[in-house]
Amino acid sequence: MNKIVAFSKRKGFIFPSSEIYGGFSAVYDFGPYGVELSNNVKAEWWKAMVQTREDIVGLDSGIFMNPKIWEASGHVSGFSDPLSECKDCHARLRVDHLLEEAGIFADEKMTEDEINKLFSKNVKKIKCPSCGKSNFTEARKFNLLVKSNLGNFTGSWADEPVYLRGETCQGIYVNFRNVVDSTRVKIPFGIAQIGKAFRNEITARQFIFRTREFEQMEMQYFISPSEEMKEYEKLRKYRWKYYLNLGFKEENLKWHKHENLVFYAKEAYDIEYKFPFGFKELEGVHARGNYDLTQHSKFCGKELNYTDPISGEKYIPHIIESSVGVGRTVLAVLTESYTEEEIDGEIRVVLKFPKKLAPVKVAILPLMKNKEELVKKAKEIFNNLKLKFNCEYDETGTIGKRYRRQDEIGTPYCLTIDFDSLENNDVTIRNRDTMEQKRISINELEGYLFKNLNE
Ligand code: ATP
Question: What are 269's strand-pairing partners?
Fold first, then answer.
């Protein structure tokens, strides 16, 4: 993990927030290569969850919403983590996580009393991860919603705080009616959205795994009550396959079934990934019954039901969801791709990204920078290819160093322009993974790259 953190900063993937001011805990910034990587992660998700699905549409809802939404969703009263403090070293700890480490599952909706009972019953099995002692304060529920001071409203919510959204799916639920009325969707159908969410996480650590500002990719699928479990199984399979298509090794993924379900849930599984600190949740795939639309209907006073156009059956749609963080996916992709290889007694660091996720697809390298003809030819190639692929032009340092630099950021192909290129109108193309080099005619370059980058 330390290697990945240091590497991500050194190579311009991920920077700690506000570093020159001494930092700002649990927020990270994506650097020049990180933003390309995260954009590619989002594009792949959008392709799989919206563009290739006739039954799913996209949405981009606001971060600020009517405060009543967070009451309806249960976040104002219930969206909270149980917090305890180690009496010896004063570390602040999440009790549900401590219990989980000891093999005891605590549902996130448990009351303070319930969690304290479970905590004191099992406290002998639990040690403070910072100092190793077992001397804790009682758990106190800590609300996760981040308040803003946006205000000056008139109306029934004038005195309530406006929150930054704690999850993106509420924006989907409250637009259910709008989407049904304005498009041709029919149940079963889904609404997908990518966007920022904010949580006052108490124990934000493990790099970008848990941050206070993060981005979610969520898809809520609306179904008839009788189809819920059938559709749920389909969604689980679809999401599993998605990760395999994204290049994850199957042995690094596993399903984790929730044992103690919230009262409204039908079933809940997480897809866990083998992060450097062990298997942890990457994505949640949950069957939520009709809780969400029922709650919103109750709080807004409007009917949120659906009438089947064929059978005439009227019901409040049930929902199954797929929910995953962009940052967690980026961390999983970095973990999966980071490779060290020994080549001629030296360590070569390569990010073996799936080509579709690689921040830079092609590097264009004139053999020497002070030879005008080489530079001119290389720039010509760069100016043409940059319109089609994300390219990088680099003329500084020896060719070997430039190859290594591209290996480190995971660029699938390097093109070298030398004196033969001027004679024969061809270049050397080097493959990141095999390091194999071959000559290819400049006229065939574009077709070759299209074919190989999209495989
Ligand atoms: P955890 O148990 O890890 O706190 P959660 O069960 O609260 O997560 P959800 O509310 O189901 O998570 O959110 C769905 C997804 O959003 C998670 O699977 C994760 O990928 C991402 N996510 C949630 N909280 C954070 C966070 N603080 N930082 C980064 N990603 C997050």
Answer: 257, 285
| Chain centre distance of CA 350 | 22
Distance CA 319, CA 312 (A): 20
The residues facing 192 across adjacent strands are 58, 219
Is the pLDDT confidence value at 202 over 70?
Answer: yes
Q: Which of 99, 216, 321, 329 to mutate to test the pocket of ligand 1 (most atoms within 8 A of CB)?
A: 216
High-pLDDT (> 70) share of the chain, %: 98
For ligand 1, the distance from its centroid to the CA atom of residue 211, given in whole angstroms, is 9
CB neighbourhood size of 400 (10 A): 8
CA-nearest residue, atom 29 of ligand 1: 210
What's this model's pTM, rounded to 2 decimal places? 0.90
Q: Would the CB of 292 count as within 6 Å of ligand 1?
A: no
Which residues are within 8 A (CB) of 56 and not within 5 positions of it... i.e. 6 or more apart? Answer: 49, 50, 189, 190, 191, 192, 219, 221
pLDDT for residue 208 is more than 70: yes
Any idea how long the chain is?
Answer: 455
DSSP string for 296-359: HHHHHTS---EE-TTT--EEPPEEEEEEEEHHHHHHHHHHHHEEEEEETTEEEEEE---GGG-S
Cα gap 48→42, rounded to integer Å: 10
> Which residue type, as a one-letter code, is found at position 82?
P
Torsion of CA 137, 140, 146, 150, to 10 degrees: -120
Alpha helices in 123-227 (DSSP H): 169-173, 176-182
Instruction: Tell me: pLDDT of 111 over 90.
Output: no
Task: Print the SS3 string covering 359-400.
Answer: CCCEEEEECCCCCHHHHHHHHHHHHHHCCCCCEEECCCCCHH
Distance CA 309, CA 261 (A): 33
Q: Which of 291, 320, 73 is CA-nearest to residue 219?
A: 320
